[in-house]
Input
Amino acid sequence: MIDAGLIYLFDMIGVAVFAITGALAAQGKKLDILGVVVLGIVTALGGGTIRDITLDVHPLIWIADTTYLWTAIVSAVAAFFVCRYLAYPRRLMLLLDALGMSLFAVLGAQKATALGMPPLIAVIMAMLTGCVGGMIRVLTRQIPLVLQRNGELYATCALVGAIIYVMFSGYINESLLMLVSISVAFAIRLASLYAGLELPEFVMKGHRLEPRDVERRDP
Output
């Protein structure tokens, strides 16, 4: 039996981290503090909200427990003020995003599994929970990491973490399994960022990939 307190802790960390990344994504977009907070909230809670709606779970988790909402608000406000005075490297946002994605992906798989969903649905819910929050940052007219064609793994990391959790759920200690699944997803994302780990790209025989720094222009 998994420790409910551990799940709650991971949830709070994930919400805080994704709220911060949402706020950081607003840099240079001329948003005021209200806009930054809204972006932080939808980034932090968007994936879980869509997951719960899809699974017909009511009330939504942040309505049932407003601590989720307050955590997102406080984290976004803190990021708004701290980043006005302290410069941060872009890698920090990538690391925080990787951590949030890993946490939420495995939490999404855990929740779907606990509701008795089949393995495939659990994995899909993991992908939604882990990746949708980052995709919502498109509100800043920034291409989400999951959609960027730069060779870096993103959704794949969530997928691997979810598959590990679903495959071994019920066979080993659940708390340990969550830690291992989150760590694997996070490690793969870090390997992608720092070691250039990537999936092979589709190339037809006799054709070459165009350079990634060359944009295709319409005539």
